[in-house]
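ZP: hey, is the DQA complex queued? I don't see it on the tracker
AM: it wasn't, my bad. submitting now with these inputs:
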Amino acid sequence: MNASPTSVLVLHGPNLNLLGSREPDKYGDQTLSSIDHQLHTLADSLELTLATMQSNHEGDLVDRIHQAKTEQVGGIIINPAAFTHTSVAIRDALLAVAIPCIEVHLSNIQQREPFRHHSYIADIALGSITGLGGYGYLLALHALNNHFKTTQIG
Ligand code: DQA
């Protein structure tokens, strides 16, 4: 019988460490640790292994994506934050490791300034969840779990 991947990496980009106090009208009042806690609880119930990381540094996010390949991570959930709109390096890293990924944004980037409308990740992601606050991460984890169960590997 073919194995299903069970390991997920969640990456949070710059300034997301400030969630809770950062522009709550746009990003809500939930802290990042609260979002991560909810993700861990859901991962446990889905019998998935979960690791999370936040960084304000593009290269650190690229390095963590590379590491995910050596760890045989099955899926990545990423909110690249401002790097969404600028980073060819993060896009290339995701393409290089070829790990299925889901893009998440707390705010609806399509309803905001025009420079936020373009994402370097959207067209290479399995899908994008935008505008649903912290709940979007939980939806992304459900979606990856479903992807694992419906995709045969090995
Ligand atoms: C964000 C949207 C980005 O445009 C912004 O730079 C962020 C957060 C979101 O989650 O809504 O930092 O990715």
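AM: back. Residues 15, 79, 81-82, 84, 105-107, 109, 116 surround DQA (CB under 6 Å).
ZP: great, adding it to the tracker
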